[in-house]
Structure to design on (149 residues):
């Protein structure tokens, strides 16, 4: 397979991955999370990541077979000599977009997890505090759950 065809395949897969990441971000921004949809997206993302790894290995093999180094300058030279430098640049730009959005989604997930842990801690603390003292009478200084929780 030609270098150009491999780059076009990677570009297509990266566009698909970017679309999945955008849908994931949309789901993460909703008030109520649909775990089933997020699970489906995670499986689809994993499949695309796997396909991208295989495609990148193929691209590297072709590049090496053509006598180019595997560093950035070798990749740029191979793409330029094959007449597909614009494909290479587009793929790099798309890769940066995918990486940025993937990191952003990871931060959104971490924020949600932190918020959920905070809520669980509040509930655990509220459930652990006794409303009544050992004498069966209501305690004077009851703990209250913060209404902002």
């Amino acid at each position: 397979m030609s270098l150009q065809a491999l780059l076009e395949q990677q570009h297509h897969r990266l566009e698909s991955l970017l679309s999945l990441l955008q849908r994931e971000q949309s789901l993460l921004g909703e008030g109520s999370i649909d775990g089933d949809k997020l699970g489906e997206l995670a499986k689809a993302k994993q499949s695309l990541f796997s396909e991208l790894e295989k495609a990148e290995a193929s691209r590297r093999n072709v590049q090496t077979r053509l006598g180019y180094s595997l560093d950035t300058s070798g990749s740029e030279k191979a793409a330029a000599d094959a007449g597909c430098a614009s494909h290479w640049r587009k793929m790099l730009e798309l890769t940066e977009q995918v990486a940025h959005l993937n990191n952003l989604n990871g931060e959104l997930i971490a924020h949600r997890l932190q918020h959920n842990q905070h809520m669980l801690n509040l509930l655990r603390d509220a459930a652990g505090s006794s409303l009544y003292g050992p004498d069966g009478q209501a305690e004077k200084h009851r703990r209250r759950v913060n209404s902002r929780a």
The helical segments are 3-29, 35-65, 72-81, 85-128. The chain has four helices and no strands. The chain has a mean pLDDT of 87.
